[in-house]
Write a structure and sequence with these properties.
Blueprint (H helix, E strand, L loop, with lengths): L4 H11 L4 E6 L6 E7 L8 H11 L10 E7 L4
Parallel strand pairs: 2-3
Antiparallel strand pairs: 1-2
Helix pairs in contact: 1-2
């Protein structure tokens, strides 16, 4: 069962309070998304650490309910 974009946004925002999240359905199938996540909580963290924070917020859904997620993370808007 595919995951809805709104659910992904909610999980990330719940797990990383104050985060700005933009989601794009890449294939129109509810299984392949791109997400841009902007959060002050990412300041001073490596890209790997930032991505781990997002995956943690998704609570183990990556690779299961959520098949593919292309992530772009940043501490503030460019």
């Amino acid at each position: 069962m595919p995951m809805h974009a709104e659910d992904i946004v909610r999980l990330i925002k719940d797990g990383i309070p104050g985060a700005e999240v933009e989601i794009q359905d890449l294939a129109g199938d509810g299984d392949h998304y791109a997400a841009t996540v902007i959060s002050a909580a990412f300041a001073g963290k490596s890209k790997i650490q930032q991505h781990q924070m997002v995956y943690g917020a998704l609570g183990g859904r990556m690779g299961g309910v959520l098949h593919a997620l292309k992530l772009t993370t940043m501490a503030q808007r460019p």
